Amino acid sequence: MEFLSMQELCITIIQCFVMFANSLCCDRQIDDRFGFLCPNVVQSVGNTREDRISYIGSTIKEGNKQCWLAPIREGNHWTLCAICPKSNIIYWFDSLGGEQNDDIEKIFTEALEMYHIIREKNTKWLRLNYRHQLGYKECGYYVMGYMYDIIDLNRVHLLDTHFKNLECYTQEDINFIRNMWSDFFLRLMRGT
What we know:
With 192 residues, the chain is of the alpha/beta class.
């Protein structure tokens, strides 16, 4: 119900969107390029720091994708990391324009270093100024929009050169994402 009434989104809605995004990549035959981290395991609630590092590092190493999308919930706020292991860059998408907190940065950096996914010690974090929300509860919709935009662009290098639009998503943009998610969810429920 929260999804239909533009309320703050729970982790289950975002997890279903990750399933949709993965399905979209398969349909477009770009699933070898994009991978997804489970927001339930990446979040700090209910997971130890070591478990999060282990999950992130082992999943990225074993998955061998060019770009990993990781929706992250911090308190009541959703953000997105786009991890590009080969270029040693993590792109930070925050609809409020904030920077990643130290804990998130350390966990992702340690995971990449521990699993020898990166060639250099210094992971580069790039905060993107892209599509900022005006209200206080749209962040989950923005994270879904960011994931869709990255997949739709179908590029994993130099994301910072492509994502510079500061305009808010319109209600039409958000409805487009909601409709795609809803169609996918209904197909999933019907088993088709």
